[in-house]
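Can anyone check this?
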Amino acid sequence: MKIQIARLQKNFPHDADCILVTSEINQRYLTGFPFTDGYVLVSRDKAWLLTDFRYTEAAKRHEDESLSVIEFSSRKELLGAILAENGFKTVGFEELSLTVGGLEKLKADYPGITFAPTHGIIENQRTKKTPDEVENIIEAQRIAEKSLERLLGLITPDMTEKEVALELEYGMKKLGAEGPAFETIAVSGTASSMPHGVPRNVKLEKGFLTMDFGALCNGYCSDMTRTVVIGRADAEMKKIYSTVLQAQLAAEKVIKEGATGKECDSVARNLINSAGYEGRFGHSLGHGVGMFIHEEPRLSQSWDSPLEKGHIITNEPGIYITGKYGVRIEDMIYIGQDGPVNLTKAPKELIELF
């Protein structure tokens, strides 16, 4: 039994006979099978995975009493046949991922069908992780941590930012990851002031080196940031690093069930502002992590909804001095049945290299 399909069927929208899943992430979430060509169709008591010859054999391994795999030569004809055979008249569609053009084509292909938005029902379900999902994210996180440990034993002053990013990604794949969870950030010196800076083909600059990276395991992402120093940190650099760490630890104490994203963000932001760095923490405190690297909920000034059991969110305050340097420290927090748990085990003390 596919647990995610069962969860969706239990909370099925009242205004749809079935849901046509076109998002590749949501298709994998529901079926456990990654593929890039076809549909997943879910009704209140049935589910189908529709794909072509290239994927059929592999997809059949994921077939069970809750999911039928059917090969098509024409997806239009097969989907139409299933809709007709089951008397489906109203089809839910994923308005958060389906393009306007894609929706218009569906309407043209099936003129007798009403298409209704699902209002993010699958994305909302994805915010609350099952124990298996949590284990996948922990596995991804442990791989990322081991890759960082490996890198710190390899890094030299002659390496470029691109080489640092490449070594992190190579290490994660060598340790069993499907690949990086997102484009790895590795920026040094003056470039570390850019929160989402792109690794350059230049040797590491003296000063801070910020590395934001994660692994992808069984379809699930991890996300962490660590900042080290190339050379030696001066008094101001130590103050900035200490301030970011204090802000992260203070926020961690309030990230729990019932707390709102705004409340959590404010704890870190107020500490940074009071230390003399007002306006230097320009992004939100955190975001949900799962099969997609940025999911709901959010820890931000605009998020008034409370955290709930099952959420996994990042805690990543930062300070960025334009044109000079920046620091960010990021962990993942799981709101578990027995309270919040920090899933990140990598050390956070200030590391000076060379």
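Reply from J.R.: I decoded it. Residues 131-154 form the longest helix (24 residues).
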